[in-house]
Amino acid sequence: MSELYPYGLGARRYREVLQEDFARLRSMAPRALDRPVPECEGWTGADVLQHTALVYLHKVETMRRGDWPDPWPPEGLDEGAGPLGLIDEAHEQLVAELDARDPAERSRTWWPQDQSVGFWVRRMAHETSVHRRDVESAAGEGTPIAADLAVDGIDEVLMVMLAGDWNDAPVATASGAAVVVSSGGHDWEVALKPDQVEVLRAASGGAVATVSGQPSEVLLWLWGRGPRPEVSGEEAVVTELRERLGLATQ
After folding, report:
1. pTM
2. Burial of 117 per CB tally in 10 Å (0-12, 13-18, 19+)
3. Which of 143, 166, 198 is the last residue of a domain?
4. Are 46 and 83 in contact (CB under 8 A)?
5. 115-156: per-residue pLDDT in tens?
6. Which of 5, 28, 142, 246 has its CA 20 to 30 A from that of 168?
7. Which domain-ending residue is among 125, 143, 161?
8. The domain that contains 232 carries what CATH number?
9. How far is it, in rounded angstroms, from Cα 212 to Cα 201?
10. Do residues 24 and 139 both lie within one domain?
């Protein structure tokens, strides 16, 4: 654990769950190729595989170069192998690159507070878990994300994605109200302000609504997937949270 990642799992566990989720994704992939992904409008299972493969390869090139690859993607990168061949090659390159490096080694990332290979170990574990679920859903199945990974994933979405406020435009209609997200014995209080989103890793008692449920359920909802967890309090503020998450995670 660290100040940045109080619910962090450590590089070994991230690599373990990355492998487990990738194996499940790959086992479901042949059944999902031509099927729509219910919660990713316009995407099929093949689209999820291509997207995930390109994310993997982009991170491989970023670590190799020490900077963002440009242009990206290179012309013809996704031609010839098909989605199954592409995801296999991309995964092989990703794990080789991660395993060849110390998590503490410097790497360019898009989050200023963590410029390390460890950032990508964590991020790729979460990336794989959510897209594994997408492929499963296209195949008509679904298994939960590991609880320890999901708690850390909730923290990532709220503290890194949402509190980072990557959307450039202020949200003039923001209420300023706070929502508590509660799962796995932990609370996050999210204040929806016009110019930023502030997140605390504790409930202060001033929230007007609460979203709660099992870690996998809550994490998937934060990413716009799965049924809505249990909600209490002001529905309009929960809807506002969902909309703000859409800006942060698009």
Report:
1. 0.95
2. buried
3. 143
4. yes
5. 999 999 999 999 999 999 999 999 999 999 999 999 999 999
6. 5
7. 143
8. 3.30.1050.10
9. 15
10. yes
